[in-house]
Input
Amino acid sequence: MSNVADTRYLTLAEVKQLLSKEERQGDLSPEQKVALEHAQKFAKLDLESVRKLRKELGEMDIGGEQNIVKIIDILPSAPEDVRLIFSKERLTPEKKQIEQIIETVRKYM
Output
């Protein structure tokens, strides 16, 4: 059984890359094929942009990798979108943090 501390959250672009590699080798299960189709359809950024955005968001105090991945996958453009991402979290970003998140995301859209 894996430890939660060992969990690594992946963006849709990262999932797309990993599953595409497996697909070329012909090793995808039906579930993985569905996941790949989803990632291909909804991944909005390329891997290099994902890495840069992940690094920038990681420098902010926004509650960890899980929230960073949500932000990258959703690419919120309005304060309400950011608030929805954090709606089930203990951490609620302040107005200034929300604006900083939106400005950072805009650079990659």
Q: What stands out?
A: The mean pLDDT is 92.
